[in-house]
Write a structure and sequence with these properties.
The complex is a heterodimer of chains A (773) and B (642). Chain A has 773 residues and is α/β, with parallel strands linked by helices. Chain A has 28 helices and 26 strands. In chain B, 24% of the residues lie in helices and 17% in strands. Chain B is an alpha/beta fold and 642 residues long. Classes of the chains: A alpha/beta (773), B alpha/beta (642). At the A-B interface, α16, α18 and α25 of A face β17, α10, α14, α15 and α17 of B. Chain B: It holds the Pfam family Pyr_redox_3.
C-alpha cells in the first residue's frame, strides 16, 4: 500500500509539474523572434537589459539551450529583462549574423551597446542564464570582492548607514547565485549586497564559521547600528542553505525590533508570521531595567534566528501566562529566559488538544554571555533535528528545491513589488482530515468478496424477503466513507456466516444510491443502517458496533430460538456450556420458573425476544428442575440467573427484583452481563460509559493488586465503574495518565457539574484510603 | 414537452354532477342537463354539485394534481372539456413530434435520477406509467402522449368529468373561499378550492393590415402538396415556427421567418423554451446559403397586401426602406404566410369581478401569481402547470411538464398545510446525517435538477439535528413557517441548483474552451449547473427578499457554499466535493463531523473533556466503527500522528 501511495504521489507531482510548465509557456510565451527591421528598436530600449541569441541552423543539440533560454526569459520578465531571438537563416541582422561564431554566444545589450557576451557553454540551464544576466544587470550595484580588504572598505563606507549582506558563492551561474542576486535586485535600496567567489575573503575577514562552511553562505554585517568611526560591524550568519523561501524569511526578520514587550490581550507579536523561535525574557517590576538590557542584547545576537519578547509577570495577565506555559510557576521565578522553538508546538499539537503541549525550554542562566551560547546550542540542535526530519520527508515526497522555488517566484515578484507582504507558506488544496474517508480512499481498489452479501434491487429485495426466514440487510451509500468501511466488515461477516448446504448467508445489502425507492420503503434516513427481517417482517435495527465480530455474533444469536426451552439438567448444563464456549456471547441467562408462574414466563419470553441477537436466554418451565438448577446458584424460583464466562470476580448474578417487570428485567440483564472489573477497551468502553458513573481505573497492576480491586468491584458497594488498563499499550497513554505515583485514577464524567463531581469524590474517599492501606 | 409546443390545453365543460366512473359513462352523464343556467352570477346555486377541490383541465398538470389529491384522500373533481384527457396534445404540436426527451437509458437504476432525463412522465407510484415504457423514440409522437395521459387517468382512477366546457367562474359576495363554475349546458359546479390548470392555449393573433391573408399554426394544413413549389413566410421565431419551417422546407421554394427579437438558441440560454437544436434546420440552410432565411421585423408594423394569388409584405413607419432604398429584404412576394406566434392564457372564463391579473411584458401570456401559485388579485384561486410559468419564465422549467410536475407537487403540499393543517412532509435527521442526505439529494434529486433556482431543499437546524424539507419553492423562504407549518426559529440552510449567473444568454458560446471550472476554490465561478447552499443564521424577511442583489434568487446569506460543478454530475468526490461541503456544514453546525474509528474515539474520550460529534452520536452509543483488516494499519497511524 505504501509503495502505491508513493507512486501515486510521484505521478501527481509529475503531473503537477507538467501542468506548471505548460501554464508557464502559455502565459509568458516563447522568446520573441525579432524581425531584423525591428532589431534596433528592440535592443535600444533605454531602461532594460536585453538578451539576444542569434540563431543559425547549424549547431547540434541546441534544443536544451533554447528551452532554458525560454524558461529564463519568462522568469526574467519579472526583472524587466527582455529576451529575443534573431533567426539568422531567415531574417538576418547583418551586423551580427555575418560573424561566423555569433551563434556560440548570448549577447546582452544595454542602450544599443553590447554590454556582455556569454559563451554558450556557460549557459547550461535556466539558473545559469538568469544568474549571468543578473550579474550584468546589477554589475554596478553588486560588487564582486577580491580580498578581505575590499570587504573592510565596504564596511567603512557603509558604517552607521546601511547593513551589508555578504555572500560567498562558489561561482556565477549557480542556483544560489541567482537567488542571491534576486534579493540584491529586490532589496538593493535597503541593504548593500556584495559577494565573493573566493572563500578566502570570508575567512580572512574573520566571518563566523567561514572556515567550516562548505556550501555557499550569507552573512549580514550590521553596520547601520555602529558609529561612523567603528572598524568592524557585528555580524549574523544565515544558518540555512540558500533557498529562496528561507532567505526571504530571513531577510524579513532583519527589520524587526531587537525585542518587543509581550503584548497584552494576546495580540500577535511582529514575530508571529515569521516562523521564528521565540525567546521570552521574563522579569518582574524590580528587575525590569536589567531584563530590558538582556533582551536587547539577545535580540541583536539572535537576529534572524529568534524573536525576543520581554515578559513582565507583574503586569501580564494570567491568561497570557497560561497561554505560554502550563507550568506558569516557572515563569514567575524571575529573572528567567525561556525558549519556544518554532515548529515544535505545531508538531506536537494534537488535533484535538485544547492547549498546546508545554514546549517551553527554560534556560539556566540570566547573563548575556553564557545565555547566548546556550541558546545557540539549543537552536542549532533543533535545526539539525528538523533538517533530519526534513530530509526524510523530502525523500518521501520526492520534492526538489529548485522547483519549489519556481513556484515561489511569482509570489516573490509580488512581494518585492509591494515591499512588505505577509509571508507564510499556504496551499490552495484542502487536505483530507477525515481518517475514515482517507482509509477508505486508500483501500478503494481492494476487492471485497460480497458473494454472500448480495446486492438487492427493487425486484430481488421483496423476493429475498419471502425466501429467507431471517434476512439481515445493510442499507448504505456507496460513496459514503462509513458505509464503505463497514462494507469490508460486512464482507468478512458474510463469509463467516456462510451456510455450506445452502451456499448463502442471512446477509444482504441495498445500495441506496442505486435504489432510493427500496431504501425509502424501509424508512432509511441514516447511512449505513442494518435492519433485521424475520419471516418477511421488519424486526429491528442492528444497534451494535460496525465491526465484523460484533455483527457475526449478533446474527448467530438471532439464529437461535428466544428463549431456548430447557427440559433436563443435561440440557441446562449443555446450554450454559455450549453457549459460553461458542463465543457468540459471554453471557448465558437462565430463567427458572415453575409451570404455574405464567406471568413470569410471559415476561421472560417477551424479554428474550426483545434481547434476541444480544443475549441468549434459556427457560426452565419445570418447578423441580428449576429448583435444582436454582440451588446451584442460590437462586429462588421463579428467578433469573445471569452467568458470565469471563468474570472471575463475579461469575454469575441473580435477579433480585421480586416482581417480574419487563423493562427492569431487560435492564438487569444488560447491566449484569458486564464484567465487574474488566480491562477497558475501545469496544467495551461505551457500555460502561452509558451508565453515567465515574470510572476507577487501575493502571498496570499485578496479581494481588488486581485481585484486591476485583473484590472491591465485585462487592458492588460503590457507584463507580471499576476497570483496568494495561500499560503496555501505546506510550502516549503513559504520558497522558502518567505516573508512578498514583496507580489508581478516578475519571469523572466530563458532562457532570462540579457539584456532582465533588459529591462523587467524597463517596470514593473511604475506598481510596482502604486501598492505600 | 417543453417549449412553445408544450402548452396543453384545458378544459372544460361541465355537466352537472356525477363523478365519472369511466370515460364512456361520463359522457353519458353529460347529457343530463341541469336547469340551473342563469345570467345572474350572484345567485345561489344550492343545487350545484359540490367538491372540496375542482381542477379545471385534465392536461398533465391537472392529472398530476388530481393524483396527489387522490392519494391524500381529498374530495376533488377534474373538469375536462374534451372527451378524454390531454385535449391540447390531440392537436399540438401540429407536426406531432414532442421535443421533450424520452431517455430510456442512463446506465443507472436510480429511479429518481432517471426522472432527470425523462421529460414526459408524470409522478406516480405506478412504475408502468412512465413514457419510457410507451415509446422507444427519443422524441416520441404526441399521439402516444395522449394515450399515456389517458392511461394515467384510468389506471390511477382519477376522478374526471369529461365534456365539461367551463364558460364562467365566479364567487359570491366577499367570501374568501367558494367558487361557482358554469358549463356550456348551464350546469353549475361548486367547490371550496379552485385550481385552474388550463395551460395556455389561445393563439396569439396580432392586429395588422392584411391579417386575414395569414393562416394560423393552429389550422394550417399538414398536406405537404399544398406547399410544393411555394414561397412561404412564417411569422414567429419560437419552436412552433421553426418546427413548421422544418416540416415544409423540403417541398418549398424557400422559407422566410419573421421575428421581432433575436432568435434564442436553447443551448446558449439553457432554457428549454428557446429554440431547440432539433428544430433549427432552417438556421442550418440559411447560413449555408440555401435560400431560406430569418429576418428581424416588428410584426405589428407589418402590412400584408394581396396581389393576385400572392402576398407582398410592407412595413409601415419604415424609415429605412422608404424612398431611395429599393433592397427591402422581404420584397419578393409570398405564396403562403403562416402565423406561429405562440399562445396565451384564456382569462375569458372568469366573471369580471374576479378576472385574474396577467403578467407584465413578456409574461402577459400568463396570469400573475404569487410564489404559492395563488392569483395576485383573487384570493383562493390557484394555478397549476404551464400557466404558472410567470414565476420562472425564461429562468427555469416551470412551464414544461418535466418542471411543473414538481411545482404541482409543491402546490399540493402547500394546499395540504393551508387547507388541512398537514405540514410539509419532512425527515428528522441527526447532525451527522445532514451531509449524507445533502450529497444523496444533489446526486439524484430530479425536482431540484429540473426546477433549478426555483425549488430548493430546506434544512431547518435545531438542537438535536435538522428537519429536512424537499423541493420547497425558495421564494417562499420568508414565509416558510406559515407556508409549510414548520417552525424555523434559527438556522436554515437552502440547497438549490444554479447555473453561473453570467453563463447563459443569447449569443454566449457555451462550447468555447475554458468554460469548465475544475478547482474547488473557484467553485463559485462555475458556469454549469451545480448545487449552491445558502446558510441563514435567521430566516430572511420579506424585506430581505425584496432587496436581494440583482440576479440573485435569494438574499445574501450568512454563508454561501458552491459545490464545484462536475462533468459527470456526480458530487461524491472525497475531497473536491465532500470535504469542502463538510467544512461548510461544520462551520454552520459548530461541530467537528469528521468520522473516527472506535480506537480514536476511545482515546479522545479518555483524554479530553469532550469528543467530536460523530464519536458522541455513534461510538458512545455503541455504534462505533472498527476497521476491517485491510484499512486498519493506515488508519491507526493516521490517527496517532495527528
Amino acid at each position: 500500500m505504501a509503495s502505491y501511495c508513493k507512486a501515486f504521489v510521484l505521478i501527481c507531482l509529475v503531473a503537477l509539474l507538467a501542468t506548471c510548465t505548460l501554464v508557464a509557456s502559455k502565459e509568458f510565451g516563447v522568446v520573441n523572434t525579432v524581425p531584423s527591421a525591428e532589431f534596433e528598436d528592440f535592443i535600444g530600449s533605454p531602461s532594460t537589459l536585453t538578451a539576444v541569441y542569434f540563431y543559425k541552423r547549424r549547431l547540434q543539440r541546441l534544443k536544451h539551450f533554447l528551452e532554458s533560454f525560454d524558461a529564463a526569459a519568462s522568469f526574467m520578465k519579472l526583472y524587466q529583462v527582455q529576451f529575443g531571438r534573431v533567426n539568422c537563416d531567415i531574417d538576418p541582422v547583418a551586423a551580427y549574423c555575418d560573424k561566423p561564431d555569433v551563434d556560440m554566444s548570448v549577447f546582452a545589450f544595454r542602450n544599443d551597446r553590447v554590454e556582455a557576451k556569454f559563451a554558450l557553454d556557460t549557459m547550461y540551464d535556466r539558473d545559469a542564464i538568469a544568474s549571468n544576466i543578473f550579474q550584468v544587470l546589477l554589475s554596478s550595484e553588486v560588487p564582486v570582492l577580491q580580498s578581505w580588504i575590499d570587504l573592510s572598505h565596504q564596511q567603512q563606507r557603509y558604517m552607521g548607514d546601511k547593513d551589508i549582506i555578504f555572500s560567498w558563492q562558489k561561482a556565477i551561474g549557480t542556483y544560489q547565485h541567482r537567488v542571491f542576486m534576486e534579493f540584491a535586485f529586490a532589496y538593493g535600496s535597503t541593504y548593500k549586497f556584495v559577494f565573493a567567489t573566493n572563500k578566502k575573503v570570508a575567512e580572512e575577514a574573520d566571518l563566523r564559521d567561514a572556515k567550516s562552511v562548505k556550501e555557499p553562505a550569507i552573512w549580514v554585517l550590521h553596520c547601520s547600528e555602529e558609529e561612523k568611526t567603528a572598524k568592524t560591524c557585528r555580524q549574523t550568519r544565515f544558518q540555512h542553505s540558500i533557498v529562496l523561501a528561507d532567505v526571504l524569511a530571513f531577510v524579513r526578520t532583519l527589520k524587526t525590533p531587537y525585542y518587543v514587550d509581550m503584548p497584552i490581550n494576546q495580540e500577535p507579536t511582529p514575530y508571529e508570521t515569521m516562523n521564528l523561535h521565540l525567546v521570552y525574557v521574563a522579569t518582574d517590576n524590580s528587575n525590569e531595567h536589567e531584563a530590558r538590557e538582556v533582551a536587547d542584547k539577545l535580540g541583536r545576537a539572535l537576529r534572524g534566528q529568534a524573536g525576543v519578547i520581554l515578559l513582565n509577570v507583574d503586569t501580564a495577565s494570567e491568561i497570557t501566562l497560561e497561554s505560554l506555559a502550563t507550568d506558569t510557576e516557572r515563569l514567575r521565578e524571575v529573572p528567567v529566559v525561556a525558549v519556544q522553538l518554532y515548529g515544535q508546538e505545531s508538531l506536537d499539537q494534537n488535533e484535538t488538544a485544547e492547549k498546546p503541549m508545554d514546549t517551553m525550554h527554560f534556560m539556566h542562566h540570566f547573563s548575556e554571555g553564557p545565555l547566548v551560547e546556550d541558546l545557540e546550542v539549543l537552536l542549532s540542535e533543533h535545526r539539525r533535528s528538523t533538517e533530519r526530519k526534513k530530509i526524510i520527508q523530502d525523500e518521501d515526497e520526492g520534492f526538489d528545491e529548485p522547483d519549489f522555488s519556481a513556484k515561489l517566484e511569482k509570489f516573490f515578484a509580488d512581494f518585492s513589488a509591494k515591499g512588505e507582504t505577509f509571508w507564510g507558506p499556504s496551499s490552495d488544496e484542502e487536505v483530507q482530515d477525515d481518517v475514515v474517508a482517507e482509509a477508505v480512499y486508500r483501500g478503494r481498489y481492494a476487492q471485497l468478496d460480497l458473494t454472500y452479501a448480495p446486492a438487492l434491487t427493487d425486484k430481488t429485495f421483496p423476493a429475498m424477503l419471502k425466501e429467507k426466514s431471517l434476512l439481515v440487510v445493510v442499507f448504505y451509500l456507496s460513496w459514503e466513507p462509513r458505509s464503505a468501511a463497514f462494507l469490508s466488515s460486512y464482507s468478512e461477516a458474510s463469509l463467516d456466516l456462510k451456510d455450506e448446504p445452502s451456499n448463502s448467508s442471512p446477509l444482504a445489502r441495498v445500495a441506496c444510491d442505486d435504489w432510493p425507492d427500496v431504501c425509502q420503503l424501509n424508512n432509511v434516513s441514516s447511512y449505513p443502517v442494518t435492519k433485521v427481517y424475520r419471516d418477511g417482517q421488519y424486526l429491528k435495527d442492528y444497534r451494535g458496533m460496525l465491526d465484523t465480530t460484533a455483527l457475526v455474533n449478533f446474527v448467530k444469536l438471532l439464529q437461535l430460538p428466544a428463549p431456548v426451552e430447557l427440559k433436563t439438567v443435561e440440557e441446562v448444563t449443555n446450554f450454559r456450556e455450549h453457549v459460553l464456549s461458542a463465543g457468540a456471547t459471554d453471557t448465558a441467562v437462565l430463567g427458572l420458573m415453575g409451570q404455574e408462574d405464567q406471568a413470569e414466563i410471559e415476561t421472560f419470553t417477551s424479554a428474550a425476544r426483545e434481547l434476541q441477537g444480544l443475549f441468549i436466554l434459556g427457560l426452565v418451565k419445570d418447578k423441580a428442575l428449576a429448583q435444582e438448577v436454582g440451588s446451584m446458584y442460590g437462586s429462588s424460583v421463579p428467578g433469573v440467573v445471569v452467568v458470565k464466562r469471563d468474570d472471575q470476580y463475579q461469575p454469575f448474578k441473580l435477579f433480585s427484583g421480586k416482581i417480574f417487570h419487563k423493562p427492569s428485567l431487560v435492564k438487569f440483564i444488560q447491566l449484569a452481563s458486564l464484567p465487574v472489573f474488566p480491562e477497558l477497551t475501545p469496544k467495551n468502553f461505551p457500555s460502561f460509559f452509558i451508565q453515567d458513573k465515574p470510572f476507577v481505573i487501575l493502571f498496570g497492576g499485578r496479581g494481588e493488586e488486581l485481585e484486591s480491586v476485583g473484590q472491591i468491584a465485585a462487592a458492588e458497594e460503590l457507584p463507580v465503574v471499576f476497570c483496568q488498563m494495561n500499560m503496555v499499550s501505546p506510550a502516549s497513554w503513559e504520558q497522558t495518565f502518567s505516573s508512578s505515583m498514583c496507580q489508581m485514577l478516578v475519571f469523572l464524567h466530563w458532562s457532570w457539574s462540579s457539584t456532582r463531581r465533588e459529591e462523587c469524590l467524597s463517596t470514593l474517599t473511604p475506598m481510596t484510603s482502604q486501598r492505600t492501606r | 414537452m417543453d417549449i412553445t409546443l408544450s402548452r396543453y390545453v384545458l378544459i372544460i365543460t361541465c355537466s352537472a354532477g356525477l363523478v365519472a366512473l369511466s370515460l364512456g359513462q361520463s359522457s353519458m352523464m353529460g347529457q343530463k342537463r341541469h336547469s340551473a343556467e342563469s345570467g345572474d352570477h350572484t345567485a345561489e346555486f344550492s343545487s350545484g354539485k359540490y367538491h372540496d377541490y375542482i381542477i379545471v383541465g385534465a392536461g398533465p398538470s391537472g392529472l398530476q394534481l388530481g393524483y396527489f389529491l387522490q392519494r391524500a384522500g381529498r374530495d376533488y373533481l377534474i373538469l375536462e372539456k374534451g372527451d378524454s384527457a390531454g385535449t391540447f396534445y390531440k392537436t399540438y404540436p401540429r407536426h406531432r413530434k414532442l421535443i421533450s426527451i424520452n431517455k430510456r437509458y442512463t446506465g443507472k437504476t436510480n429511479k429518481e435520477y432517471n426522472m432527470r432525463h425523462d421529460w414526459n412522465s408524470l409522478l406516480s407510484d405506478d412504475e408502468t406509467l412512465r413514457m419510457t415504457q410507451y415509446s422507444e423514440e427519443f422524441f416520441p409522437s404526441a399521439d402516444i402522449y395522449v394515450q399515456y395521459l389517458n392511461d394515467f387517468a384510468r389506471k390511477l382512477r382519477l376522478k374526471i368529468q369529461h365534456g365539461v366546457n367551463v364558460q364562467r367562474i365566479w364567487k359570491t359576495g366577499n367570501k374568501k373561499e367558494g367558487f361557482y363554475i358554469r358549463d356550456q349546458h348551464g350546469n353549475v359546479f361548486t367547490c371550496r378550492y379552485l385550481v385552474v390548470a388550463t395551460g395556455i392555449w389561445v393563439p396569439n393573433e396580432p392586429d395588422f393590415v392584411g391579417k386575414e391573408h395569414v393562416t394560423g399554426y393552429e389550422n394550417m394544413t399538414l398536406n405537404l402538396n399544398f406547399y410544393r413549389g411555394k414561397t412561404v413566410l412564417i411569422l414567429g421565431k419560437g419552436n412552433s415556427a421553426f418546427e413548421t419551417a422544418d416540416y415544409i422546407q423540403p417541398v418549398t421554394n424557400f422559407v422566410h421567418l419573421f421575428s421581432r427579437s433575436r432568435v434564442k438558441l436553447a443551448w446558449e440560454t439553457h432554457y428549454v423554451g428557446d429554440l431547440r437544436a432539433i428544430n433549427n434546420g432552417l438556421i442550418d440552410t440559411y447560413q449555408l446559403k440555401a435560400l431560406d432565411g430569418v429576418l428581424y421585423t416588428d410584426i405589428n408594423n407589418m402590412q400584408v397586401i394581396k396581389h393576385g394569388d400572392r402576398f407582398s409584405v410592407r412595413l409601415v413607419n419604415d424609415t429605412e426602406h422608404r424612398g431611395l432604398h429599393d433592397n427591402f429584404a422581404a420584397r419578393s412576394p409570398y405564396d403562403v404566410i403562416i402565423r406561429a406566434l405562440g399562445f396565451h392564457f384564456d382569462a375569458s372564463i372568469f366573471h369580471r369581478s374576479i378576472i385574474p391579473k396577467l403578467g407584465e411584458g413578456e409574461k402577459k401570456k400568463y396570469p400573475a401569481i404569487k410564489p404559492n401559485y395563488e392569483s395576485m388579485n383573487v384570493e383562493g384561486l390557484f394555478f397549476a402547470g404551464t400557466n404558472t410559468h410567470s414565476l420562472d419564465f425564461r429562468k427555469s422549467a416551470g412551464g414544461f411538464i418535466h418542471g411543473f410536475r414538481y411545482t404541482t407537487r409543491a402546490l399540493h403540499h402547500l394546499l395540504e398545510w393551508r387547507n388541512h393543517k398537514i405540514p410539509w412532509p419532512s425527515t428528522a435527521l441527526r447532525t451527522t446525517q445532514v451531509m449524507n442526505t445533502l450529497l444523496k439529494r444533489m446526486n439524484e434529486a430530479s425536482g431540484l435538477y429540473q426546477m433549478y433556482s426555483v425549488l430548493g431543499d430546506i434544512i431547518i437546524v435545531n438542537d438535536t439535528g435538522a428537519v429536512y424539507l424537499e423541493e420547497v419553492p425558495v421564494q417562499l423562504l420568508p414565509q416558510l413557517e406559515t407556508a409549510t407549518g414548520h417552525l424555523a426559529p434559527n438556522k436554515v440552510i437552502v440547497m438549490v441548483m444554479e447555473f453561473g449567473k453570467n453563463f447563459s444568454g443569447p449569443g454566449t458560446d457555451p462550447l468555447r474552451r475554458g468554460t469548465a471550472t475544475t478547482v474547488p476554490k473557484n467553485a463559485h465561478l462555475a458556469g454549469f449547473l451545480h448545487p449552491v447552499l445558502y446558510y441563514y443564521s435567521h430566516l430572511p424577511t420579506d424585506d430581505d427578499m425584496l432587496r436581494r442583489p440583482s440576479k440573485w434568487i435569494l438574499p445574501r446569506p450568512t454563508r454561501l457554499h458552491h459545490v464545484i460543478e462536475d462533468f459527470l454530475f456526480d458530487f461524491s468526490s472525497p475531497v473536491s466535493h465532500v470535504l469542502h461541503l463538510r467544512r461548510f456544514l461544520d462551520t454552520v453546525f459548530g461541530y467537528d463531523t469528521r468520522n473516527y474509528f472506535a480506537g480514536s474515539c476511545f482515546k479522545m474520550a479518555m483524554t479530553h473533556t469532550s469528543v467530536p460529534k460523530t464519536c458522541q452520536d455513534q461510538y458512545l452509543r455503541g455504534e462505533g466503527l472498527t476497521h476491517a483488516s485491510h484499512c486498519e494499519a493506515s488508519a491507526v497511524t493516521q490517527s496517532t500522528t495527528k
